[in-house]
Amino acid sequence: MRCPYCGGDNRNNAELCSYCGSYIAKPDGKTVINQTIYVNKTEDVQTKANNEQSVSIPVLKHNKPIYKKWWFWLIVVVFVFGIGGGIAKNDSSSDENKSVWASSYTEIDNFDYYLDGDEIFIKDYKGTDDKVKINDTYKIDGKERKVVSFNDAVFFASSVDSVILPNGTKYIKNNAFNSSGIKYLYIPKSIKSVENSFWGYFHDMEKIYYGGTETEWKKLCKVNRSDVDVKEIVFNADSSKLK
Q1: Cα→Cα distances 146→111, 121, 208, 238, Å
Q2: For 131-140, what is each residue's pLDDT tens digit?
Q3: By CB count within 10 A, which of 27, 85, 121, 165 is most buried?
Q4: What Å distances lie between residue 114 and 35, 70, 119, 156, 180, CA to CA?
Q5: Are strands 171-172 and 162-164 parallel, antiparallel or unpaired?
Q6: C-alpha 14: how far from its chain's center?
Q7: Which of 167, 154, 150 is nearest to 237 (CA)?
Q8: Burial of 199 by CB count in 10 Å (0-12 exposed, 13-18 middle, 19+ buried)?
């Protein structure tokens, strides 16, 4: 049976067109005429259902401003203290760098030396630090040994700015600071004598700190004050307080 509405071929006993869904016959077998055509009936119903479906509109929540949330201020506090700690640390480092003296003792491995019993004789400084602070004693081969002497040209041509010689030093050769450019020097009163030429190797020095009295200094330094190229000599100096 051909559908009079869409022209589709259907079974002879079909009541509905399998193509357009229209009624094409009554139960008595007579063809239905003047019928309202429902083409794609199922699709129309679905479309209508979709159109009639309610649209869900999300409701925006009015959140608190970020500055009113507790975690925001926690982050601020951590950040501020972190910055403050960094600044304090940098200031501390800057203060240490401003000092003309070393803040810790120079390791014995920075020197060439030889041993004579319990005594250390320093031959050469091979380190790279411009601030040198030599300890009174060093533990070598499991035994504490005393620094007693500095041989020829220990600091020759080195870029040291300041040197603290250890208390207990007995001997220092005249050219120990030859061409070193040193600016600050601590000399312990344990040194009893040096050659007069010792002072001639200092040029444009800022200060010499001496552990003894002025009277003891005059016994150590037998040249005229004008022959020592240093701006100031400080007597009764304590090496542990040099900062």
Answers
A1: 14, 9, 23, 19
A2: 999 999 999 9
A3: 165
A4: 125, 66, 9, 18, 22
A5: unpaired
A6: 88
A7: 167
A8: buried
Report which residue type is found at 169: T
Distance, C-alpha 16 to centroid of its chain: 85
Residue 163: exposure state from Cβ atoms within 10 A (0-12, 13-18, ≥19): buried
Taking only the tens place, the pLDDT of each residue in 8-18 is 787 777 777 87
Instruction: Quote the CA–CA distance of 199 and 96 in Å, as a whole number.
Output: 29
Enumerate residue ranges in the chain where pLDDT < 50.
29-49, 52, 54-55, 57, 59-60, 92-94
Q: Which amino acid is at 36?
A: T
CB 201 within 8 A of CB 226: no
> Apex CA 27: angle with CA 26 and CA 32, to 5°?
5
**Quick check: helix, strand or coil at residue 138?**
strand
Contacts with 193 (C-beta within 8 Å, 6 or more apart), sequence order:
220
Q: What letter represents residue 102's amino acid?
A: A
* Residue 105 burial (CB count, 10 A): 14
